[in-house]
Amino acid sequence: MGTIRIMIKNLGPGLLFASMAIGTSHLVLSTKAGAQYGWIMIIPIVLANVLKYPFFEFGVRYTSITNKTLIEGYLNRGIGYLWFYAFITLFSTFTILAALYTVTAGLFINLFKMQGISISMVALGLFVFISTILIVGKYKFLEISLKFVISILFVALIVTTALVLFNGKTTAIVGFEPTPIFNEVGILFLIGLMGWMPTTVEASSWVSLWSIEKWKTQDKPSLRESLQEFNLGYFFTGLLAIFFMLIGWFTLYGTNTVLSDNSVQFADQVVQLFTTHIGPWAYIFIAVSAFATMFSTCMTAHDAVSRVSLDILDLLFPKQTTRQTKLNFAVTVLVLAVINYIVISVFSANMGNLVALATFVSFVVAPIIGYMNLKNVMSADIDPRFRPGSALRLLTYLGILFLSLFSLYYFWIVIF
């Protein structure tokens, strides 16, 4: 019982990671995977979660031992490492948040039947509301509120999945032929799915920043306790991805239903596929759960990108005083909101282009950032006793090799 109490007390960075991960990769991509390709998609989902695990674990390990963020570690490895990560973060600034807010705005319009209002206007309202929460509530409020959101989401998804499995798989239409996976369209979808499953690899530094922030108000846990808390959150992200895939498979696979790239239409399809299979009574239950999923993801990602941006500026352009102040954080949150509102306005409701672009870049850079994280935990910054064991290092090399070869395979089928 003592171990459970300690784990609950230490809930924070791993919880925020889970909240941030259970978003587009789960609600959008995992559901589409099951709906379009069936049960076979459990393989890339599990592979992505297993092979990427070391990349994220190293973020927790490095920060717990050194009291430094992964980004500081990149600078210690060389200024080129930091500039590369800064470029990836800059790209994320214009894609990831815009994609997340677009999906969330579509769900909001669907939930409250606000068909006469545009995606960009709803997104603007979300930007204002979430920015206010982050600026006023700060990290502590973010952590506390997400404990409730994640708990409700997990229970809701378990109930939904159980009901879908109980009702059985939908009947395939006459003449149905499975969608091919290993063609250009299928490979592109796999790259998108694995690029953001469980989330983007650059988010490994987000966890380290949340850890530093949490320790400002609480005694620092041991390395073992930090890893336990993170592993719990990581396990649930993988489990929920499988739940979403099962729901898509059982309710849509074999019906030739194509999930829309338009965020409002997609939101309506997702909610309707649940209620059609379960019953109209489940509509509000499913709609609220889906919206809570994306809302919490927007909140955590917006907070993380703001903190990462300030940390990078501090390291690239050092000065006597740190930029990590309440005022600078507030300004950064607002600047990101404005930038991504403009991106959403330009792309309108076409969620597909935003998600495809963001996930493709995340997939291509994943093995590079994984290697950078490995360099951090195997460096002189860490006592040899606390470096990852041979099994974890082997898994890291397998992940880097697999993701690299898969990227090369995609470029080969596109070119030839």
Automatic annotation (TrEMBL):
UniProt superkingdom: Bacteria
Entry GO terms, CC: membrane
Transmembrane domains' residue ranges: 40-60, 81-109, 115-136, 148-166, 186-212, 232-252, 281-306, 327-348, 354-374, 394-415
Secretion signal, residue range per the UniProt entry: none
Compartment(s) of residence: Membrane
Database matches in InterPro entries: NRAMP_fam
GO MF annotation, one: metal ion transmembrane transporter activity
Record keywords: Membrane, Transmembrane, Transmembrane helix
Membrane topology listed for this record: Multi-pass membrane protein
The protein's name in its UniProt record: Divalent metal cation transporter
Gene source species: Maribacter aurantiacus
Phylogenetic placement of the source organism: Bacteria, Pseudomonadati, Bacteroidota, Flavobacteriia, Flavobacteriales
